[in-house]
């Protein structure tokens, strides 16, 4: 049988035994829709939610790979083949404000939708939440946090601080306890250790055995000026504000200057933008109050003189 297609009059022409037979169809899905609808609805939702984040291409690729693995694994089960689980503990390396915590929250939700996690909740922790004040206290605190994270994600920020006290520091006990639970409960929760790029690399060197326990290590690069401006515009849109042309130029010039003079670890990326926006909104509000003008465009527009730049 030969088959050819045409979009004319919504028909598919099938050539069978030398005779052309038109069949009426209601809709032909484009290739991209065939890929996401309906059986890949979860992937479509994942891509939409990840698409709300500026940059982070490596992380977006990792999440899609995990979805593909889960989907194909189910097909292997249906075919009677082995379908083993994978360890999904992660390490995020990046400077402040590069989206590490935001991505961790989103991963929890997405992995719950994908049935990787039963709950998908996020437990955030830092050194003080893990390290106790006396022998045995640290292990218990760490076990309690892991218990709370079962079915979800335990996210430890500035994880490198656990190794800063040396061999006699209780931070080492926290690391050892986490490593044990990573093995014993490796499919019951996901551990994500996060921190600055350089410090996390030093952290891994202090305990070489950690590298093999984190199969997914993702770098969160600093945002470019264009990406920071995009983040700014999205934040303003969410708040129903906009920048005047003067304000947009002034902010871009300021970001170029800040990126050239500040150490990467001292620049807080998206957090820096959020702080500028919030200060500028307060300044704009005071300006409007003083002149007693409240027209819609006035209420929406951040002028250059409203920008508080340090």
Automatic annotation (TrEMBL):
<dbReference type="InterPro" id="IPR003959">
    <property type="entry name" value="ATPase_AAA_core"/>
</dbReference>
<comment type="similarity">
    <text>Belongs to the CbxX/CfxQ family.</text>
</comment>
<dbReference type="InterPro" id="IPR003593">
    <property type="entry name" value="AAA+_ATPase"/>
</dbReference>
<dbReference type="Pfam" id="PF00004">
    <property type="entry name" value="AAA"/>
</dbReference>
<keyword id="KW-0067">ATP-binding</keyword>
<protein>
    <submittedName>
        <fullName>Stage V sporulation protein K</fullName>
    </submittedName>
</protein>
<dbReference type="InterPro" id="IPR050773">
    <property type="entry name" value="CbxX/CfxQ_RuBisCO_ESX"/>
</dbReference>
<dbReference type="InterPro" id="IPR000641">
    <property type="entry name" value="CbxX/CfxQ"/>
</dbReference>
<dbReference type="InterPro" id="IPR014232">
    <property type="entry name" value="Spore_V_K"/>
</dbReference>
<keyword id="KW-0547">Nucleotide-binding</keyword>
<dbReference type="InterPro" id="IPR041627">
    <property type="entry name" value="AAA_lid_6"/>
</dbReference>
<feature type="domain" description="AAA+ ATPase">
    <location>
        <begin position="86"/>
        <end position="224"/>
    </location>
</feature>
<dbReference type="Pfam" id="PF17866">
    <property type="entry name" value="AAA_lid_6"/>
</dbReference>
<dbReference type="InterPro" id="IPR027417">
    <property type="entry name" value="P-loop_NTPase"/>
</dbReference>
């Amino acid at each position: 049988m030969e088959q050819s297609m045409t979009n004319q009059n919504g028909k598919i022409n099938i050539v069978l035994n030398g005779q052309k037979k038109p069949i009426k169809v209601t809709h032909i899905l484009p290739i991209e829709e065939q890929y996401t609808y309906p059986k890949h609805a979860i992937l479509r939702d994942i891509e939409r939610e990840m698409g709300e984040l500026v940059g982070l291409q490596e992380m977006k690729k990792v999440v899609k790979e995990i979805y593909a693995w889960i989907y194909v694994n189910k097909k292997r089960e249906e075919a009677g083949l082995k379908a083993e689980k994978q360890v999904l503990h992660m390490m995020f390396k990046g400077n402040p404000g590069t989206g590490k915590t935001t991505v961790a929250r989103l991963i929890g939700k997405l992995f719950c939708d994908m049935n990787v996690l039963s709950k998908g909740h996020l437990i955030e922790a830092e050194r003080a939440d893990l390290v106790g004040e006396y022998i045995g206290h640290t292990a218990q605190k760490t076990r309690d946090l892991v218990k709370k994270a079962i079915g979800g994600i335990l996210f430890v920020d500035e994880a490198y601080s656990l190794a800063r006290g040396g061999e006699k520091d209780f931070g080492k006990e926290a690391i050892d306890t986490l490593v044990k639970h990573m093995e014993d409960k490796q499919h019951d929760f996901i551990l994500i250790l996060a921190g600055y790029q350089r410090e996390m690399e030093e952290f891994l060197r202090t305990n070489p055995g950690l590298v093999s326990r984190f199969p997914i290590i993702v770098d969160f690069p600093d945002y470019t000026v264009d990406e920071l401006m995009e983040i700014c515009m999205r934040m303003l849109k969410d708040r129903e504000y906009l920048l005047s042309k003067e304000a947009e130029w002034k902010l871009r010039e300021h970001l170029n200057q800040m990126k050239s003079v500040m150490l990467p670890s001292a620049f807080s990326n998206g957090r820096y933008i959020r702080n500028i926006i919030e200060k500028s909104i307060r300044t704009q509000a005071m300006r409007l109050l003083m002149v007693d003008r409240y027209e819609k465009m006035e209420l929406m527009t951040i002028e250059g003189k409203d920008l508080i730049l340090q």
